[in-house]
Amino acid sequence: MEKDSVLQYEGCNFLRQRLVLATLSGRPVRIVNIRPDDVSPGVTDFEIKLFNLLSEITNRSTVDISPSGTTVFYKPGSLVGGKVEMDMGVIRGLGYYLEVLCFLAPFVKSPLNVRLRGVTNGGGEPSVDLIKHAWLPVMRRFMFDAEGLDLKIVKRGLNPNGNGEILFTCPISRQLRPVQIENMGKVRKVRGVAYSCRISPALANRCIESAKASVKHFLNDVYFHTDHRKGLEAGSSPGFGIILSAETTEGIYFVSEKHSNPPNSGLDPSVPEDIGTEAAERLFSEIYRGGCCDATAQTIVTLFMALGPKDVSKFVSGPLSTCCVHFLRHMKDFLGVVFKIESYDPLKGKSAEDQKLEIGCRDKVKLTCVGVGFGNLNKALL
Question: Where is the RNA 3'-terminal phosphate cyclase domain (predicted)?
Fold first, then answer.
């Protein structure tokens, strides 16, 4: 299929996937029938901000939106990166935009230095904390030189009024490394951060106590700390929450989070003890799913496998999420990469005694592919 041929899709679902893959492959894409029957049809304000963000980190990209807003034509340009500063509003959390930056960051011309303002926690997508603890370790596994890869929360901004600020920096990489990761190891420690903004720090401490009580039933190496923000560093909305991260003996991370209900949302006020307990239960569920990455990071794992050198990459994952399944289909359209997916049972061929081991979910899958040899031609050879 020719590089300049236009791919066409329908509907607003998976817009970010299509834009990311179009940018990396250089394939133009047309998306039609975007919310045609809604009261406010067409693209939304947060999608416009996404287009603006892509325009900031690329050169000569064009976005044509029909007068009704229901059709978008995107012709990607070259990735340039550099220093970017934008206000992303409060409709979607900053995680919505950060995911796109993580996909594209290693392949830009100049190292990314992006400062975004908006909602850091809440908003219906992975928080900035979750991306920092779950996605960045995955990126380091694929990048040969990840020095300078960092995500700093300058100001916390909770839902609904946001006013938080983050700084994302990422070095460029000429090529990704192939991976063959099939052993997740055993959980060896759990770390956590309870944050609070414009409220008493005692609520964060209560979150920690309940989460720690749940985790210590299974593990002793547990350490949590608080991140209390006030003044300009606390954003514009009061609230609290907690994020937990479990690390295995093989350096695999599983992450969970839970935050309080926003004020004036019509929901009951959140109880700190319930927040901590639910975050711990979500972490247990994530560990049970297993695999060699957090469930939210499945998409970036499969993308970096597909973009790797022309060598075989293998990766064991927990049950594939709906988002990852559609991402695999889109990669076949844009990159021509097809994955071999087979069920994975680590106890297959083991003794009867080993068969009694509790290894979590038995619906794990093994992903295998040959990379397309995608390289960052903007990075000079030494």
Answer: 8-341
Please report, rounded to a whole number, the percentage of residues in the chain having pLDDT higher than 90: 88
Provide the residue count of the chain: 382
Specify the pTM: 0.94
Who's near 268: CB < 8 A, 6+ residues apart? 261
Q: How far out from the chain centre does Cα 171 lie?
A: 18
Q: Which residues pair with 313 in a beta bridge?
A: 369
**Residues contacting 7, CB < 8 A, separation 6+:** 18, 22, 27, 28, 29, 30, 333, 334
Cβ burial, residue 265 (10 Å; 0-12/13-18/19+): exposed
Burial of 223 (0-12, 13-18, 19+ CB in 10 A): exposed
Q: Where are the domains of the chain?
A: 7-175, 187-289, 291-382
**Predicted pLDDT of residue 264:** 83
Residue keyed to tokens 């049972």: 345
User: Among 316, 304, 299, 367, which Cα is nearest to 14's?
Assistant: 299
Q: Report the pLDDT value the prediction gives residue 356, as an integer from 0 to 100.
A: 59
Do 49 and 88 touch, CB atoms closer than 8 A?
yes
Angle at 330 between CA 21 and CA 170, to 5 degrees: 35
Rounded to whole angstroms, the Cα distance separating 50 from 33 reads 19
Query: In CATH terms, is domain 187-289 a member of 3.30.360.20?
Result: yes
Identify the three-state secondary structure at position 149.
coil
Give the pLDDT confidence score for residue 351 in this predicted structure: 59
Question: Which candidate, 226, 233, 237, 330, places its Cα nearest to that of 272?
Answer: 226
| Helix ranges (DSSP H) in 183-271 | 202-215
CATH classification number, 7-175, choose in 3.65.10.20, 2.30.40.10, 3.60.15.10, 3.30.1330.10: 3.65.10.20
Write out the two tokens for 355.
């068969």
Query: What is residue 1's predicted lDDT score, i.e. its pLDDT?
Result: 46
Answer left, alpha or beta for residue 297, where phi above 0 means left and psi between -120 and 50 means alpha.
alpha
Does residue 269 have a cis peptide bond before it, meaning omega lies within 30 degrees of 0? Answer: no
